[in-house]
Amino acid sequence: MDSRSRLIQPRGPLVVASGKSLSVLIETAFGGLAAARTRAIWNRVVKLVGMKKALVAGDTGIIGRHLVSHLQSLESQWNVVGLSRRDADSSMTHNHVSADLLDRDSLRAALRDHADITHIFYVGRSPQDTAQAEADINGAMFSNVVETANEPALEHVHLMQGMKWYGSHLGQWRTPARENDPRHIPPNMYYTQQDWLDAWAASRSVSWSALRPHQVCGVSDQYPHNAMGVIAVYGALSAEIGLPLRFPGSHECFNSVSMVTDASLLARAMTWCATTAACESTPVNISNGDYFRWANVWPLFADFFQLADGGVKQLSLADFMQDKASVWASMADRHGLRTPDMDNLVNWQYGDFTFNAGWDDMASTTLLRQLGFNEYLDTEEMFTGLLQQYRDERIIP
Question: Cα-flanking dihedrals φ and ψ of residue 310, to 5°?
Fold first, then answer.
């Protein structure tokens, strides 16, 4: 045992209980040492205990829920607290606190018992009507969370980005996109967040990382901005009404090359990225690792719902689904589905954009492999597997 270790040996056994603040345990085991609250002492203690504590900001969304689930599966390594504007719900099995991310007083009150956070995973987003408003609001939310949670134990901040960094939402963009591609003309909320984080971390002993996925896919009955939710509900309604399964978007989109990212794969990559030194200060693209065309996977969806493949019939889902909420509620009652409110499952405007983007969506994931993350998924198997999960969990008939 070296002299540094002897300085912080606990007076008695130190046991980390799930959900209990590490700061409380440190106060008990180390007496006055924790009161010093110097980053070096806290980080040394955290390493001795062998437990990291994650703050997942945005834990009610599809990315946040999958990340929390993954971190909880690593219970000997991670303690988890979730943060969002929403109150905790009965499905949550982790410690959750609610706060207005634009109000630092609200954040301080919510996080007052969590001074031992070692890693921030920021996956929150507030959609706004203009790009400038989106950059301003989301930039403020992000900096508020990071600075409020910046206690001495903090080691790392992981920022969730996306293909909008490259302008994927603005029309045709350079593909396959690479991490060092030039920015489009601002504003862009990802630019605002990353520039602030890079400058903030440079003067502190806190590292950061970022991942850029596209079309994150997973099972959710509380987050409607999800392509799988659109496909699942649209297919179930088509079967209910007795229609072929028609692609509701454009021919250009139907035949374009695209990619998606499985939410569980993304959760594993986020955890790896946030604990791998090679990823520090390095934004990285991520997807399942393959590409697809809607034209090739649409027959798989038709087979799943036991419907004829109806080809392309362009229409506005936001318009044509306005009167289908009552149809869904009737289906939910008849089949015993767990979510009778269709609006909790699907955002039809999101579906309209997804199915009418008439350009290729492609990004290189070479850098991710070079850094050492080599997991991948077959996208066609992911699609059918997630649809079956929607059915198994009684979200669709």
Answer: -90, 5
